[in-house]
Design goal:
Keywords: Metal-binding, NAD, Oxidoreductase, Zinc
Organism: [Mycobacterium] fortunisiensis
Number of strands: 16
Shape: globular
EC number: 1.1.1.1
CATH class of the largest domain: Alpha Beta
CATH architecture of the largest domain: Alpha-Beta Complex
Protein name: alcohol dehydrogenase
Enzyme class: oxidoreductase
Order of helices and strands: EEEHEEHEEEHHEHEHEEHEHEHEHE
Number of helices: 10
Distance between the termini: 26 Å
Amino acid sequence: MDPLPPRVTTAAVWTGTGVDLQAVPIPALGDGDALVGVRLATVCGSDLHTVTGRRPSACPSVLGHEAVGEVVATGPGADVRVGQRVIWSVTVACGRCGRCRSGRSAKCVAVRKVGHEPFDGDWPLSGSYAAHVVLPRGTAIAVVPETLPDAVAAPAACATATVMATLEAAGDVAGRRVLIGGAGMLGLTAVAACAEAGADVQVVDLDAHRMALVPGFGGRASSGCPVDVAIDYTGSSVAVADALGRIDIGGILVLAGSVTPGPPLAIDPERIVRQWLTITGVHNYEPRHLHRAVEFLDRTRDRYPWETLVTAPVALEDLASALRPPPPGKLRAAVVP
């Protein structure tokens, strides 16, 4: 018989000016819901943008959407079992609207997002900066193999899964010249994934410390030559324009970092037509990408030093110290309840 779940948990609530540790009642679980005890959470760059005011978000709220945890209770009809170690998607979809039925569940008309919901709403335990998180029906959940450490698995829920979506949009990169814009967690993951697929991977980033990590993941500094595929994670219009200028005949530009308003980009339609170019965007990901992320990290766990990119974890009560850019050589801060 499974043990009874706790009735109260602890959550770090972002108030707009700081973090307030609060005791929060755990609600009754509905059909398909799961209660997960958070083992470790990593701090995504978008949360840093929230706390610095660069990104609008619900407030107060429990932030955090990259985490790994253990299922401690389930509602009727849940797809996971108590005791499983899991990661979960950022988006929660209805599964019924036209977008969901067409395979665009990340853009569900009623989408809700882990770590982005108001604390005073109907889903207060939505974020991973807490001892427990409630995962409603419609959350994609992937079981984590025993071979994958928590610090490697946690970023899969956002960074790695998003990269899997961008690589799907880019198509087969084997034997192709690929330019990656940005050497943060997403960019470095894309470097490793493209290198594993057999691409010649070049990288641009203004941060020397990040560029120093690139060779260890299969890439090299950009030579400025033409490329077949460019994937931008920077969101910089200047970087995007430079990447577009380097795309060769029949090439593709995938934009994933442009998630806040920026200066408009000048595009010559004639060049797009005559050179058979493709420009596409990717925002969030589908459930299949979450599962591919876990498979990729487990497959490459001995090839690339994933665990070295994450700082030693701090306790939940010290979350404020982790809500800042990580030190040189690290790409994610970590938190444990």
